[in-house]
Design brief:
Layout lengths: L1 E3 L3 E3 L16 H5 L2 E3 L2 E5 L5 E4 L1 H14 L7 H14 L11 E10 L11 E11 L10 E5 L17 H16 L4 E5 L5 E4 L3 E6 L3 E5 L8 H12 L3 E5 L3 H10 L2 E8 L3 E9 L4 E3 L5 H13 L10 E3 L2
Bound molecules: 4'-deoxy-4'-aminopyridoxal-5'-phosphate.
Length: 317
């Protein structure tokens, strides 16, 4: 779908997958004016295809659009784009345990000019790719590298938007994490509070049943996290969204108050954190039952194996 200042959203169409032609002066190539989403389509046992809370992805795309001075795509266009893509060939959505069609909606500034201002011509695309199980051979706890050198986002920055620049700034720390034998990097904010991983939110489980997740205006609000916390509340657990300092994390684990730490996002759903590593310490993390039990409950809902009490599924075929 194209957007221009004069014409608004227009020209929705499905076209064969292939290269996009762009003017070398297209604003996105110079100023990074772009945003995206990540969402999956699941095939149920009866053959029907569903997405999970697509209205939330559409809403987040609009929030990202506002921060990046891009036009807001209405929710119905967002969901319609998924329906039309899947209508081309429903067989794209694989069946089988942990199989899905990963959908990548994205929007970028294509107006050609050199100068720093919001573009007046924008394109929205949706591409898709079948995705298998994130973990082969079962969910494994991950080792997390604490980056003390690099930040992902700053106050008033674009941290809460899903825009390429945030991921660009996470590439070097992620490479540092890999060089240190870790799977992922965790970022802190300027005040020493825990933010998130490069592509997942973090959740702490306390001995007294509280489930705590970092909240700030520079964290990307995960839809997986929101759903898991709702399921935790349904089980009678108390959920807290607030600042969590690194000290609270480390002391909580050392004292036994924190009994479980996990990360969550669309791709992996839930992964327990097994170790927190930095240049001067390595804290082993306690492994509990809640992460995997919530993971099972959520994936059961997504694949239609359990009742969708909250009305989260939207049929798209
Ligand atoms: N934080 C970041 C930085 C991410 O890229 C993602 C993945 N979209 C998440 C958190 C988790 O979000 P969601 O649960 O909506 O996939």
């Amino acid at each position: 779908i194209c957007w221009s200042e004069k014409g608004g959203w227009h020209r929705p169409r499905v076209q064969p997958y292939g290269p996009i032609s762009l003017d070398p002066a297209a604003a996105v190539l110079h100023y990074g004016q772009e945003i995206f989403e990540g969402i999956k389509a699941y095939r149920h046992a009866d053959g029907a295809v569903y997405t999970f809370r697509p209205d939330r992805n559409a809403e987040r795309l609009r929030r990202s659009a506002r921060r990046l001075a891009l036009p807001e795509l209405p929710t119905e266009y967002f969901i319609q784009s998924i329906r039309e893509l899947i209508a081309v060939d429903g067989a794209w959505v694989p069946s089988g345990a942990d199989q899905s069609l990963y959908l990548r909606p994205f929007m970028f500034a294509k107006e050609a000019f050199l100068g720093v201002r919001p573009a007046k011509k924008v394109a929205y695309y949706l591409i898709a790719s079948p995705a298998g199980a994130y973990f082969t051979g079962g969910v494994k706890p991950v080792r997390i590298w604490l980056s003390k050198t690099y930040a992902r986002a700053g106050k008033g920055g674009t941290g809460a938007a899903k825009t390429g620049g945030n991921y660009a700034s996470s590439l070097l720390p992620q490479a540092e994490a890999s060089a240190q034998g870790c799977d992922q990097v965790v970022f802190l904010d300027q005040d020493g509070n825990v933010e998130e991983l490069g592509g997942m939110n973090v959740v702490f489980v306390y001995k007294d049943g509280r489930v705590v997740t970092p909240q700030s205006d520079s964290i990307l609000e995960g839809i997986t996290r929101d759903s898991l916390l709702q399921l935790a509340e349904d089980r009678g657990l108390t959920v807290e969204r607030r600042a969590v300092s690194l000290d609270e994390w480390r002391q909580g684990v050392a004292s036994g108050d924190i009994v479980e730490v996990f990360a969550c996002g669309t791709a992996a759903v839930v992964t327990p954190i097994g170790a927190l590593v930095s240049d001067d310490f390595e804290d082993e993390q306690p492994l509990g039952e809640l992460a995997l039990s919530l993971r099972e409950e959520l994936t059961d809902i997504q694949y239609g194996r359990r009742e969708d009490k909250h009305g989260w599924l939207v049929r798209v075929d």
